[in-house]
Design goal:
This protein has about 400 residues and is an alpha+beta fold. The chain has helices at about 5-20, 35-50, 90-105, 135-140, 145-150, 160-165, 195-200, 240-255, 290-315, 330-345, 360-365, 390-410, and strands at about 55, 60-65, 75-80, 115-120, 185-190, 205-210, 210-220, 225, 260-265, 265-270, 275, 280-290, 315-325, 330, 350-355, 370-375. Strands 1, 2, 3, 4, 5, 6, 14, 15 and 16 form a nine-stranded mixed sheet that branches. Helix 1 crosses helix 3. The longest helix has 22 residues, at about 290-315. The two termini are about 25 Å apart. The structure holds glyoxylic acid (GLV) and manganese (II) ion (2 copies). Glyoxylic acid binds near residues 125, 356 and 357.
C-alpha cells in the first residue's frame, strides 16, 4: 500500500523550523518578513525537487501540483507564516504534510495525484496588520481591498511597501482569486493548539467547525499631565481606563458565556513616560465563540463597560473594527471523509470545535472543506514550546493521505 515517508516528513518539518528559527526552539516567520519569504522559497523548491510544478500567486501563496495538471483539484495545505516567537508546527505542519501526501501519490504514479494541489498560505496569523487570513481571503476573492490598502504594521510600514519588499504588488492582489474556480474542495491538517486531545489521550480529531473571531482596536483619550503634581481626583488617565477595562474583561465574558474567550494582546500608552499621566492609550481586543449571536452580545456588553469606565475616568473612547471572521461549519461530506480517513489509520476520532482560526474557515464558504487535528502537548501553541509527538505528526499525515485520496476520487 502507498504510504507517506515518516522520516522525510519529520526532516522537512525540522528544516523549515530552521528558517526564521530561534535559539529557544521557536520560529519567527511573521507574514512577508525576510524569513517568511525565505520559507516560501524553500517550500517552492521542495515542490520542484519532487517533480511537481510550483506556482506562487499574487499574495505569495505557494501552490504545487503535478506538471500539466489543470484541476479541478482537492486543495490541501495550511499557512507558512508564524506569530512572532511562535511554534514550529502551527501552519507549517499542514503545509509540509500536504507536500508529503502529494509527493507520495506522485511517486506511486497514482492517477489521483493529478487531482490534488497543495498550498502554503500567506499571512494567516494576522499579527503584522491585526487582520489575518489575507492569503486565503485573496484566493477566495473575499479580501476587502479598500480596508486592506490602509493597513500598516506596528513599525508604520504600509502593506503595499511590505508586499513590494516581498516581490508583489498590492494592486495585483486580486489576481490571486483567478485560481479559485480550479478548486473542488479543501482539506487542512493542523495541530489542535489547545489542551483537549492531549488531556483525553486522543490521537486524531475531526473538526466540526471553527469559532468566529472579532477583532477591534480601542483608542482612549484622556488628558496628558504631570504625574507628580496632579492629584488623583483631577486626572483623566487614559492608561488607567485601558487597564481597568482589561482587568474586568475576563469576568465580563465569563458572565455571558462560559465557552467564549477574549484577549487583549497589545496595549500602548502615549506619550509613554514614567512621570507622565498617559493622555492616550490604545489596545486590541479579540473575542471568539462558535455562535455569532454570543459574539455580538459580548461586543455590546464590552462597549457598555468601556463607556462606564470612561465616564468614571474622564476619558473618551473610539472603536475601530479590525476584522470579523464568521464562525464556519465544516462540510458534512468532507467530515465523513476525514472520519473515514482516521478510521482507515485505526482511529475513532471525536468531532471538535476549533478555538483557533484557520484558512479552512475562509475556504469553507466556497468549497466543501474539512479539517483534521492532531494533539498539542500540554495544549501549548503560539509559543516556542509548541510541540506534538512525532508519532502523532506521522499519524496525522497518514490520515491526510487517506482523506485526500477519498476526496480526490469523488471529483467528477
Ligand atoms: C490563528 O492561529 C488564530 O487563531 O489567531
Ligand atoms: Mn494555524
Ligand atoms: Mn496561529
Amino acid at each position: 500500500v502507498t504510504d507517506i515517508k515518516a522520516e522525510r516528513l519529520l526532516a522537512d518539518l525540522q528544516t523549515l523550523a530552521g528558517i526564521g528559527g530561534l535559539a529557544n526552539g521557536g520560529v519567527d516567520r511573521v507574514a512577508w518578513s525576510a524569513a517568511d519569504v525565505a520559507g516560501r522559497r524553500w517550500f517552492a523548491e521542495r515542490i520542484s525537487e519532487a517533480g511537481l510544478e510550483p506556482h506562487v500567486d499574487a499574495a505569495l501563496n505557494v501552490f504545487g501540483h503535478c506538471p500539466g495538471a489543470v484541476g479541478p483539484f482537492v486543495l490541501t495545505g495550511s499557512h507558512l507564516d508564524s506569530v512572532p516567537n511562535g511554534g514550529r508546527l502551527d501552519g507549517a505542519y499542514g503545509a509540509i504534510a500536504a507536500l508529503e501526501v502529494l509527493r507520495t501519490l506522485s511517486e506511486a504514479n497514482d492517477p489521483l495525484a493529478d487531482r490534488v494541489e497543495i498550498v502554503g498560505f500567506s499571512d494567516e496569523e494576522g499579527v503584522r496588520f491585526s487582520v489575518g487570513l489575507i492569503g486565503s481571503l485573496a484566493l477566495c476573492g473575499d479580501l476587502n481591498f479598500e480596508r486592506t490598502a490602509d493597513l500598516s504594521d506596528s513599525e508604520g510600514t504600509p502593506i503595499d511597501a511590505v508586499l513590494a519588499q516581498a516581490g508583489r504588488e498590492f494592486g495585483r492582489l486580486q489576481d490571486a482569486a483567478q485560481h479559485l474556480s480550479a478548486l473542488a474542495g479543501f482539506l487542512e491538517l493542523h495541530i489542535e493548539q489547545g489542551p483537549r486531545m492531549d488531556a483525553a489521550g486522543i490521537s486524531l480529531a475531526v473538526v466540526s467547525g471553527i469559532v468566529g473571531v472579532h477583532r477591534e482596536r480601542v483608542r482612549l483619550t484622556g488628558t496628558q499631565n504631570h504625574a507628580g503634581t496632579t492629584p488623583f481626583p483631577l486626572r483623566h488617565d487614559a492608561g488607567r481606563a485601558a487597564s481597568r477595562t482589561a482587568a474586568q474583561l475576563r469576568e465580563l465574558v465569563e458572565g455571558i458565556d462560559a465557552n467564549a474567550v477574549a484577549n487583549i494582546g497589545v496595549m500602548r500608552f502615549a506619550p509613554g513616560g514614567v512621570n507622565i499621566v498617559p493622555g492616550e492609550a490604545d489596545f486590541t481586543l479579540e473575542l471568539r465563540h462558535p455562535d455569532e449571536i454570543i459574539v455580538r452580545r459580548i461586543v455590546q456588553a464590552f462597549e457598555e463597560r468601556l463607556r462606564t469606565i470612561c465616564d468614571q475616568d474622564g476619558c473618551s473612547a473610539e472603536i475601530e473594527l479590525l476584522s470579523w471572521v464568521p464562525p464556519a461549519r465544516m462540510d458534512p461530506g468532507m467530515s465523513d471523509i476525514t472520519a473515514a480517513a482516521c478510521d482507515a489509520v485505526g482511529q475513532q476520532p471525536p468531532r471538535l470545535w476549533s478555538g483557533a482560526g484557520h484558512d479552512a474557515a475562509v475556504l469553507s464558504r466556497h468549497v466543501p472543506t474539512g479539517m483534521i487535528f492532531v494533539p498539542s502537548i500540554g495544549g501549548i501553541s503560539h509559543a516556542p514550546s509548541e510541540s506534538t509527538a512525532d508519532e502523532h505528526l506521522v499519524l496525522g499525515a497518514r490520515a491526510l493521505l487517506q482523506a485526500v485520496k477519498r476526496a480526490a476520487a469523488q471529483i467528477k
